[in-house]
Amino acid sequence: MVVIDGKILAKLTLALLLTAIASCGSKGDTEPHGDTADAYAIVVRWFVDNYASIDADADVKQVVFVEALGEGVGIGLETQVAFVAASDSFADVRFIDDRAQAMDGDNVRDDVILLAIGPAITDGTMAIIECDQVLSEGNVLSWTFNLVYSAELWTLTSAPSPRA
């Protein structure tokens, strides 16, 4: 059995705590990381710019319904709130649990965009977001968005690519 003096144990514990605290604070100060909500907003912005169903000069924003891409997949509540706020200048983003809210029969309502968005796979400086654009119950376009975080904002690395 090894017996450690109480003073030595206290000093070791203090040293470990100080090391842990120092390592937690240093990375964030030197390496900027983008907010995932802002990356999602870039994806919505691309759809609004390319598939808006309202006149760009209208006094209303494009309504974009967002649902989870896949069972058990979702965007956390805090991220949803930040996502809506980040999109507010160009879209009225609404999260839905029931696709019927965005549908007119089998088709998506004429005045909305319906997106099924997957989780952002990100390291804070690069992100991949998969997204389905629902046109009707049987007509879905699948997209992959690659983004990079630089100069304090997310940008697309290239036009999104369709997925099979």
Protein topology:
Blueprint: H1 6-30, H2 36-51, E1 62-68, H3 77-87, E2 91-95, E3 103-104, E4 107-108, E5 112-117, E6 121-122, E7 126-136, E8 139-150, E9 153-156, E10 161-162
Parallel strand pairs: 1-2, 1-5
Antiparallel strand pairs: 3-4, 5-7, 6-7, 7-8, 8-9, 8-10
Describe the 3D structure.
The chain is an alpha+beta fold and 164 residues long. It is built from three helices and ten strands, in the order ααβαβββββββββ. The protein has helices at residues 6-30, 36-51, 77-87, and strands at residues 62-68, 91-95, 103-104, 107-108, 112-117, 121-122, 126-136, 139-150, 153-156, 161-162. The strands form two sheets. Strands 1, 2, 5, 6, 7, 8, 9 and 10 form an eight-stranded mixed sheet that branches. A two-stranded antiparallel ribbon has the order 3-4. Helix 2 (36-51) packs across helix 3 (77-87). The radius of gyration is 22 Å and the shape is globular.
Identify low-pLDDT runs.
9-31
Q: Please report the total strand number as a whole number.
A: 10
Q: How large is the radius of gyration?
A: 22 Å
Order of helices and strands: HHEHEEEEEEEEE
Gross morphology? globular
Mean pLDDT: 82
Number of helical stretches of at least 4 residues: 3
Oligomer designation: single chain
Strand content: 25-35%
Secondary structure: helix percent: 25-40%
The biggest sheet amounts to: 8 strands, mixed
Based on helices, strands and strand pairing, what is the structural class? alpha+beta
| End-to-end Cα distance | 63 Å
Features:
8-stranded mixed beta sheet, 10 strands, globular, alpha+beta, 164 residues
